[in-house]
């Protein structure tokens, strides 16, 4: 750049299209869709409003300052019966561990709800 005789570091004026793709009307429409349905996707808003995916994303994140929150499954509340069964199982594993030591750990299969 400076090899070509440029002497300043400021951006030169260029003939680009002005950024009119995101305006207050579009932001208001996107906000309205989100407030009606909090689970709506960017693709759904994009197709409904007939605007680009990137512009919808920019409106949501930069202008409306929303962010995605991921729902996570949590265990249901245990009844007294379930709590008793969990306690019995834990006590049985503890007794096996005391009797057999670390060898019992290799035979236990665990998993989660996912």
Automatic annotation (TrEMBL):
InterPro entries (UniProt xref): Transposase-MT_Hybrid
Domain of life: Eukaryota
Protein name according to UniProt: Histone-lysine N-methyltransferase SETMAR
Organism of provenance: Nephila pilipes
Gene: X975_16533
